[in-house]
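Protocol step 4 of 6: structure prediction from sequence.
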Amino acid sequence: MMTFNEKHNSIQGAKELDNQDEFYNTRNEFHFPLTENGEKCLYFTGHSLGLMPKNAEAYIQEELNAWKAFGVEGHFKGKHPWMPYHEFLTEKMAKVVGGKPSEVVVMNSLTVNLHLMMVSFYRPTQSRYKILIENTTFPSDKYAVDSQARFHGFDPKEAIVQLQPSDGKMTLTDDELVSQIKSHGDSLALVMLGNCNYLSGQCFDFEKVVAAAKSVGAMVGFNLAHGAGNLKLDLHKHEADFAVWCTYKYLNSGPGGLAGAFVHEKHHKDPKMPRFEGWWGTKKETRFKMKPEFESMDSVESWQLSNPPIFQLAAIRASLDHYDSVGMDNLRAKGDNLTGYLEWLLKENCGNKIEIVTPPYVEGKQTRGSMLCVRVKGDAKNVEEKLKEAGAIVDFREPDILRMAPIPLYNSFEDCFELVKVIGSAV
């Protein structure tokens, strides 16, 4: 990661850094919301909803034109026939999450995919029934695991256990994480963690989590809502059993965009694997013979239920083109530099008015992505309102947290400087 000095604590210094950035111009491929004065706002909430890629409009319009021109025959005609449309995304999405194409599919919404995965990978017994989650997991994950426990006849208060950081902290060390996984021993059925953590921004060590879970005989899966398109992922190599993610945050697919799922290939041909099934998961060669028996495709596509919405797929395809052209290695490197610069500026200019909760950058280890969780000493909600009035959009969480994400595809060093300038005035 870059190092910064006093010359970078200026607009000229920020512009110098932007001039050195070979991917600076990718920001011109996205639509920024405008302030009342017609200026681009300082947009730092890509961890909540990514900006619209400019090519998304043309990609969606192409399918509207196909619908108009072909009707139902659009499933087989046109530049991108609808029948195999989801396959046009597979290879590029697989690169984003580090899976084989046979292990990755775009389908459904995030929590739907999480439930589908738990049908297969949460198979509790009377002695092995616990699910380990984060203590600050996103509420939808908590609702999902609670309801799965109840569905199997268990009390969530006993079946759902949460990681516990020491001394009231929001983050925990790798050793604490591994120790808590192992402490549940053979009562643990599933480890299901978000990564990055949506609130603190902490990234867990995939290899250590998977190894610890396997050592006690538990399945392991990840909710990558804040990881896909943000972290450098290698799901196949790390041998996660499954992963799920949304695409409307870092992957810029638009509000309510479709989600993704990964199932490691070692599970694809397991005849004992329970799974909810639908017609889009049966073999493509015999799908339209309308057989009464389900025939598995021996890939993650067998977890599909229904044919997907094409306009949503078109929007994701538009964003994935940008990810593919830049590459996750380059995006993560730039993301580390942007996040490090934002962190340095906050410490230099806001002093004891704020506390950065997100773990610091560590060379050679992925401790965080492109987001900082900042605890404000004072009225954080009021600070957020002042930022909004100044044309800067960040994210507020009760009671005193601001989250801000410098997204490498479209944020700049100058954006970071201007944001901290506004924050400094507001606090």
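Step 5 (inspection) to follow. The radius of gyration is 22 Å.
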